[in-house]
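Run: sequence + S-adenosylmethionine -> complex structure.
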Amino acid sequence: MSQDYKDYFIKDGRHIGDYEGMYRNCPDPWNIEALGLRLDMLAALLLLDFLKGPIAKVLDLGCGAGLFSLEVIRKLSKDNKDIWFLLSDISPTALRQAEKRLRTSDLGERGRKEALGKAGAPPLGEAPPDLASLYAPEADFLPLDLRTLPKDNPFSGKGFDLVVLAQALWGILEDLEAILTEVRKSLSPKGALLISQHFPGDAQEYGRDIVRDPEGLKGFLRKAGFKESHSVECDRDFNHHYGGLWRSS
Ligand SMILES: C[S@@+](CC[C@H](N)C(=O)[O-])C[C@H]1O[C@@H](n2cnc3c(N)ncnc32)[C@H](O)[C@@H]1O
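>> structure
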């Protein structure tokens, strides 16, 4: 079995889209565990500061192994523990990895249990840990192919305060407007869509005729009924990174 993610993702200009095979066979397919958060993710995290009103329900579409999801959860739940996160991806294996990441993170169950265990027997003279800071996020995990949304949208009318779409563009490119239209229907009236996406410029092998830069993506978002509220762009000439916050127009 190949361990080269391109054999499952995009090869010779064609979107193969075997994401489940990829997560099964390629450790760290996006090099994300090794390299950490990309610029577009850092930009998108900054944009969370512009969310309005209380955030109670968050949907992360194409969450993959959950590295970015964890950062979103970490940031949003810093001052608000009453949030439910629904993480979704086409690949059940990716979802299992995301769940493990959350449950074994410092925010997760294990960290909580370990700390509570310590709290049960703090060394003499030592203050017990701050139990209020120990928090296991309320999260569920749903396998779903976003390309099915135009026919059957389980999120429609569910009033998510935030929907995250991070680097999931290539897997939905061929029906982008219809899928984004369905994503918009999942938002609460003040809800926002957070986009984190990078564009490889001349190295883009697939979909250049559909979207090749943030402007191209913005065109589809507008057609789907969104308007941009805030954005950050960087590294335009090499690996164009875009973070954007969009609301219903
Ligand atoms: C590059 S990864 C990004 C993962 C994560 N959002 C992040 O930023 O780290 C793209 C993810 O989109 C998922 N994906 C691609 N096409 C999809 C589709 N049609 N429906 C649902 N998920 C999809 C893939 O399985 C993969 O986990």
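>> summary
Residues 19, 30, 32, 62-64, 67-68, 89-91, 94, 145-147, 166-168, 171-172 surround S-adenosylmethionine (CB under 6 Å). The first strand starts at residue 10 and ends at 11.
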